[in-house]
Amino acid sequence: MTQAVIDDLMARQGEIRARLDAFLRLPSVSADPGFAEGMEAARGFLLDWLRGTGLSDVHLLDGGGEPAVYAAWKGAPGRPTLLVYGHYDVQPPAPLAAWRSDPFEPVEKDGRLYARGASDVKGSTTIAVEAVAAFLRVTGACPVNVKFFLEGEEETGSPSLRELVRRHGDLLRADAMISADGGRASETIPTINVGARGIAGLEVALRSADKELHSGRYGGAVRNALHEMARLIASLHDAEGHIAVPGFLEAAPALTPKQRADTAAFLLDEAAFCAEVGAAAFGEPGYSLRERLTLRPAIDVNGMWGGYTGAGSKTVIPDEAFAKITMRLVPGQDPERAVALVAEHLARLCPPGVSLRITPKSGNSPASSLSEDHPLLRAGSAVLERLMGRTPVPVRLGATVPVTALFQELLGIDTLMFGFNLPDEDVHAPNEFFHLESIPLGLRGWAMLLAELGGMTDADFAPFRRA
Amino acid sequence: MTQAVIDDLMARQGEIRARLDAFLRLPSVSADPGFAEGMEAARGFLLDWLRGTGLSDVHLLDGGGEPAVYAAWKGAPGRPTLLVYGHYDVQPPAPLAAWRSDPFEPVEKDGRLYARGASDVKGSTTIAVEAVAAFLRVTGACPVNVKFFLEGEEETGSPSLRELVRRHGDLLRADAMISADGGRASETIPTINVGARGIAGLEVALRSADKELHSGRYGGAVRNALHEMARLIASLHDAEGHIAVPGFLEAAPALTPKQRADTAAFLLDEAAFCAEVGAAAFGEPGYSLRERLTLRPAIDVNGMWGGYTGAGSKTVIPDEAFAKITMRLVPGQDPERAVALVAEHLARLCPPGVSLRITPKSGNSPASSLSEDHPLLRAGSAVLERLMGRTPVPVRLGATVPVTALFQELLGIDTLMFGFNLPDEDVHAPNEFFHLESIPLGLRGWAMLLAELGGMTDADFAPFRRA
């Protein structure tokens, strides 16, 4: 049965590619209201397409922002119900001059398909829809119950996602989620995502005087807000690269032998990794690069400013200084607690007479993890091993996938990231592309995954669902 | 003779005040091209006035920017020739809404004359011109040779002053300069300025990668330009408030017993000084507030920036960071050497893989000093003692007076600051005012100073002139 579906998918490559090209031609840039028509067109395209596949209940879900596209097939009672996540919005194409071709006119070259959104994530979203559609077309049924949830605000930080899930939680109820976003880590070594770091942030504002002071009249006699900010920021790490906020690392659990073995199985070349972006390696001693990037927390100042920043010179002692800080968290670290620890540390070091104002940022998200015996992970691993001829290496993402944490929080379900994009595809940059060989590979993978999950029951997922 | 001149000045208070009011009505804002007419009008006012006093050679001196107003009287052969410095330009009046009266319509209230430029420095400039004019009017001669040099770019940092002095050096040749700018430190305790701190500056730019990096993909693995900048800035001082740049303090000479005694004679209340501007006291231990402000160097970061500084959050690891640094220098410190020491210190601490670019700022100026036995100082002290009934305390300015350093460098002459404005007059701020009692006091003081200097010869100044 599954082989017939795969054969059908392989036979229809031209048709699938034409559909992806049509999808890519729609400039669905969510960040820029000037692209509202493109957003509208992409939603219309998806509604028409999904309706033509045999999926039912195809409609838009409104959360107050850009609506999401929904479609369901519920013809497999007793089988698991999978929410399939993708997004139809894309990053702005700027800077346009850096593109070698029109970002909204797909161009094939050297086995790559160039277009904005090709990699992130219209390519993998198309693969997911085509795989389900092929089951319905060839066999009249899908091995599992499926609910598509295709978001329109992923590239703008999902501002109304929480509200959207709140309003439509009943419709979205599922045993687990499979995401078309969150791609492969390597072209040759199969990997499977088992988690992502969390995120938390705060803004720091210092005030050292009522107003800017003249450095000739006050220099040498009073505190300078920028000096104090520099001291505070410098205090976040020690010279060796350890995070120096008391209590912060204590909440990050020691790496397990399995975690160390998994990261060692998929080593990153630190010199090449840094050289590619001209960066200098730095970070917590005693951990490999991949461990630092995925299994250890990080604190980064994202912006810092104060005083006179224009041309020339202004001899002021700044009275105010500002910094934006975000941290990447690992399982075991509570985002609110992490912010509190940093805030307490800064308050301890802030000298008398200087006022410190901390504003926690919204949108915090804890790290997420798939437990080792989760059916999603078992199914995904089995499929990748058959597909790639090699046991997949469990990997974690250094970045945060807020949608994963949000669906865990609001719907109590875990997510398997099963996208097929690769790390070199210039996501968010000019000349974004998708490796064309990923299309047949992804179609096969998704068909096999749906079949694999179809061999399970919803009861298999029950132990892993929360409330 | 001098008493007759003073009697005449006192009898003409109404006339003098009317002239000052007319001068204040002219909006001579040099920083804003929208006030070009006001600048032109102020120059015309001064040319007419000076021509009416019996001064000769009244004309504009062009240096490529706002011209200066020049006038001379050279009828005292053998007597010293004094360059008299003032400026006719004023600060912009913004923020206008904070003014209780029109900044360009002088208003008298509670013994104060409110108007932009009343304190800085049309009041004291008027006093200087009136005193010379009174000698010419009453006695037909001035006790010394006088050359007025009234600048039009003081409030914009004197961009063409160097060129102006270069072009017109012959005309400006003198034995010494008396400045109407640089006022009194106290209403009750007579003080005499014997020097000012110098200034030097640099800009620091760091680059830690080829581009901004995503904190999810790189956080914990690479250097962050803002972290490095914070470390570098924090390293300029130790936790106690000492400048921590190796070699920097070594060039600042130990305070002499006389300097310590002079500053002790005119103590500043540190708590009140800081409370007035809401600042926290901080600085080199072991020195009084006034010593730190005038006899010890200071390093201040005037501006610092990098990364994302807009609204909300952007999870980047910034690749660039910037800081503007200026320092106040004391006699013995060479500005170029001071910049080099800071640059070397930063380079030493900058980690491998992070590039550091130092741009020394133009307009450096060494500290200036009047030697203890300079005829200007002897004359000024004697006059202030008679005028105020108390020996004046020698004080130094914490700020820099570039015109003083420039005239020392280009014309080899020293400057006595003999302005009568007071520190509370909201200079550069809304509701600037001049204490009206300073007008008769200043007129008497200037008349007495001219007479005192008239008792000297140009030979008395020769040992203090440099090439």
Automatic annotation (TrEMBL), chains A, B:
Signal peptide limits: none
Gene3D superfamilies (UniProt xref): 3.30.70.360, Zn peptidases
Entry annotated with the keyword Hydrolase: yes
Source species taxonomy: Bacteria, Pseudomonadati, Pseudomonadota, Alphaproteobacteria, Acetobacterales
Pfam families given in the database record: M20_dimer, Peptidase_M20
InterPro entries: Bact_exopeptidase_dim_dom (IPR036264), Cyt/Met_Dipeptidase (IPR051458), Peptidase_M20 (IPR002933), Peptidase_M20_dimer (IPR011650)
NCBIfam families: PRK07907.1 (NF005914), PRK09104.1 (NF006579)
Top-rank lineage group of the source organism: Bacteria
Residue ranges of domain Peptidase M20 dimerisation in the record: 195-352
Statement: the UniProt record of this protein carries the keyword Protease: yes
Protein name as catalogued: M20/M25/M40 family metallo-hydrolase
UniProt KW keywords: Hydrolase, Metal-binding, Protease
